[in-house]
Sequence to fold (297 residues):
Amino acid sequence: GRPGSVSIMANNSTPRLDLSKPRYDQSVFSGRLRHFMETANPLNVLVPSKRLEDAAKLVTEYRLHGTAPPGTSEEQLWKAKRLYDSAYHPDTGKKMFVVGRMSAQVPMNMTIVGCMMTFHRSPGAIIFWQWVNQSFNAIVNHTNRSGGEEISARQLMVPYAAATTAATVTALGLNEVAKRLPSLIGRFVPFAAVAAANSINIPLMRQKELQAGIPIVDESGKKVGMSKAAAKKAITQVILSRIFMAMPAMVIPPFIMNNLEKRGILTVSPNIVSPMASFNKQFCRECLGLMLQRKLH
Fold:
């Protein structure tokens, strides 16, 4: 192990760490922020499958038996848990599709948001990028749904089609209105479309949770029942948080981009959009730390 770290030997049958919980205190904002900054770190997307599988094996073995290979330090266990949390579903323990992981949010949204705000005048471009955005959202919602319950193709396609239609209709309609208004207004059309789509997509995608409820656990993590009220509250929070998280990336840049366009800079260097969207998306990761939660759903 590293100097100063505690080695956990294979003959130690008593778990030194509780890997069923986040490393940092989740009752305070700083602890939640540190937790999500680690699990949503874009660099986690680049971790090879073999390393993720090794991390999952180490975490699983330690949770079950309280043992780890000789020489394994506490820091190594926490690093393994960080990788495990970033790539494996908290309920099923299955590896999540890479595009649907929280660590993929920044690079994916950096590209999609930048393109939605740049190509917002052509109806064809609006339809295409709204479709791309809703396809990505559907993947994220499906990947991070609560529990291991499988959903049918119809349950998956209905909210996807509804959200894509709502986003496209909203964007096209507002874009027509915006043509008669200052160009700055047109850059806010993608945000309005995203807000409308989230309000439809998330409840439909997670309708089974509204119907059956979500698991309720006690302080020790033991399941004590199912709650429809908790499901309704959780889904409402998800909708609001998705809209809130989109604001830094879709409300601030329009002012900057409008100014750059007037100066002719955006025409010369169009790629400047992506770094701005990336910065704002990374900033909004902090929004995740505002809510006290056991799992990211």
